[in-house]
Amino acid sequence: MTAPPHEAHPARPGRALPDTQQGMRRRNLARVMHTVSAEGPLSRAAVASRIGLTRAAVSTLVDELVRSGLLEELGPERPGRVGRPGSALAVSAQGPAGIGAEVGVDHLAVCAVDLCGRVRARAVRYGSNRGRSPEPVLAQLTGLVRQVVSEAEAEGLWPAGLAVAVPGLVARDGRTVVRAPNLDWRDADLGALLPADLPPTVDNEANFGALAELWLGDGTPRDFLHVSAEIGIGAAVVFDGRLLRGTRGFAGELGHVPVHPDGPECACGGRGCLEQYAGEEAVLRAAGVEPGEDRVGLLSGRAAEGDEDVRRALREAGTALGIALTGAVNLLDPEGVVLGGALAGLAPWLLPSLRDELARRTAGPACPVAVSELGPQGPLLGAAHFVVRAVLDDPGAVAERA
């Protein structure tokens, strides 16, 4: 795991620890956790060297983290070193786990990730959620959460929190979906419908996908636009390793940027939105293909086989994406664009026209476009890692409960 600062959710403002002796202790506990997480296994002496504290101070902090079940001692370091070998420290494979959940238009998913970043349990339910009210959907999601928590507990883990990715606008309270056009949800308080013993953080799926890319991506810049797609298209803006959320928390609604203002009506109420040209269902319609359970697999398979109708639809979708992204690139000047979600699986046929459009329309040099290795798993992993990083950022809170 890398160790840039945790992306605090607006539902929990003022997470900075107080400038007191207790606050300093908790900040130092976090420094130890992040260092071992990023570079471990390490000895106490190696940790002290990296964070600039005395060995005695680090040893006291490490003892507290070991007692809390956040760090574990692996035994003496490898032979061959001069002097007395120290005990190697690593992030514990047991103890707290981040529970991530995702509400998709056609699926629900939950996973548990341990402090080492490994997925330890997962559950998925396929089926359309479009037009269903939030209550039965969240009841099913809660069932999956209970299943995953039970499996995680059987492996010595316990849930440190729950984060839920949704395809819609989420208020700054971190629990209310203001509008999710593709689910037909408005002003839905998901926090009231999720397990009371796991107070949730709810956020837009593109935001969690971008955070997963930032934390888990190989070589991802700290300034980038992350674009993902399922039925709809979402985006997130990351600058200096942090999400740009906007005044109300709604930044990144790329799918509802008009590409052709007189185009077809969109679920949001506008016309000619990007989703009407580059969303999965829009591409299927343009290609004359009946949707199946695995829409991305169907499109990529047909395109790989040389189906010209599918290839043409994907080229046109890439052009629409390029037009929509041009405005964002010209306005924000990011280091790059990352395609995630379903777009990652269709990249070979989207990228040429997308890159051509960006190169033709952007004012400066062409903006690099990369493909996420996380693909459709990004939002779910980002949600789970959001909880994990909250533990790494304030292990003192866990230590006080231990």
Overview of this structure, please?
By secondary structure, the chain is an alpha/beta fold. The chain folds into 2 domains: 96-210 and 379-390, ATPase, nucleotide binding domain (Nucleotidyltransferase, domain 5); 218-373, ATPase, nucleotide binding domain (Nucleotidyltransferase, domain 5). 40% of the residues lie in helices and 21% in strands. A 5-stranded mixed sheet has the order 5-4-3-6-10, with helices on both faces. It has a 5-stranded mixed sheet with strand order 13-12-11-14-15, sandwiched between helices. The protein has a 3-stranded antiparallel sheet with strand order 7-8-9, with no helix packed on it. It starts with 20 loop residues before the first helix and ends with a helix. The relative contact order is 0.14.
Adjacency order of strands in the biggest sheet: 5-4-3-6-10
Q: Tell me the CATH topology of the largest domain.
A: Nucleotidyltransferase, domain 5
Number of beta-strand segments: 15
Largest β-sheet summary? 5 strands, mixed
Number of helices: 13
CATH class of the largest domain: Alpha Beta
| Tally of separate domains | 2
The outline comes out as: globular
Category by helix and strand content: alpha/beta
- Quickly give the CATH architecture of the largest domain: 2-Layer Sandwich
| Low-pLDDT segments | 1-14
Radius of gyration: 22 Å
Question: Can you write the helix and strand succession as a string?
Answer: HHHEEEEEHEEEEEHEEEHHHHEHHEHH
Strand share of the residues? 15-25%
Note the gap between the termini.
Answer: 24 Å
Fraction of residues in H or I helices: 40-55%
Roughly what is the average pLDDT, rounded to an integer? 87
